[in-house]
Amino acid sequence: MPSEQATDLAVARRRLTELGVHPQKRFGQSFLVHRGIVEEIRDRIRTLSPEIVVEIGPGLGALTEAIVDDVPRMIAIEVDPRLGESLRERLRERSQVDVRIADILTIDLSAEFDGRRVTVLGSLPYRITSPILKHLIDHRGVLECACLITQWEVAQKIAASPGKDGSALGVLVRAYADVSSPRRIRRGAFFPVPDVDSAYWEMSFLDRPRFAADEDAFFRVVRTLYRHRRKMVRRALQEIVAKETIEGVLASAQVVGTQRGEQLSFADLDRLAAALCRVETNL
To answer: Is the pTM of this model over 0.90?
Structure first.
């Protein structure tokens, strides 16, 4: 690791000043400056021993500089040209790292890494956490796992899905991946200090989803039920199912209509989506 570390708050402040970067908390622009947490994540990456690491939003490079010498190949994707160019210059002698100035959402990971398994690493900007998670799921065929830092509440809801403390996003993530218990990171580990705590957690992609129904139908059911999570399933489904067919759909799916949507398991949601498809096919 370079002697001048971005986990040193004074170094982080100076780098930002020199680059003319003024972090905006409302955009989730907070940089990890806690050496202990960086070292824990570095040790975890060493344990995983990935062939390729793709880092999303390296920022000031705290994780990048800690990990780069421990992996065969690393691609750091930074959307801010000032941060990206600075990191590229500092790591110019590390041939195994490729710093790219790009938006991760525009990169086709499947085309880039076809035939190879990749570990993703990143502290995700709060405002685009959902799109990034969906992007990773869309490219799960080439991804081994993702080691992520997100808002604490987001991580909690994902880990609790499906369920009363879960979310539609959480069901989406857990439909395709095993999720580790989130490890809380206090807000003081970042600069500038955000308004909320964060969490480190991992998603390990499954060989097959936790549902067998049509994908579009499954997530149409999930979105509907979690949008109306306090309503009975019977009433919530009126948004996507003709009223006169709801009882038949519920009976076919063996789902009790007086339950709340957040009470349904993956198996329940899967049967409900399959029943919905059967009704639509027969129309």
So the answer is: yes
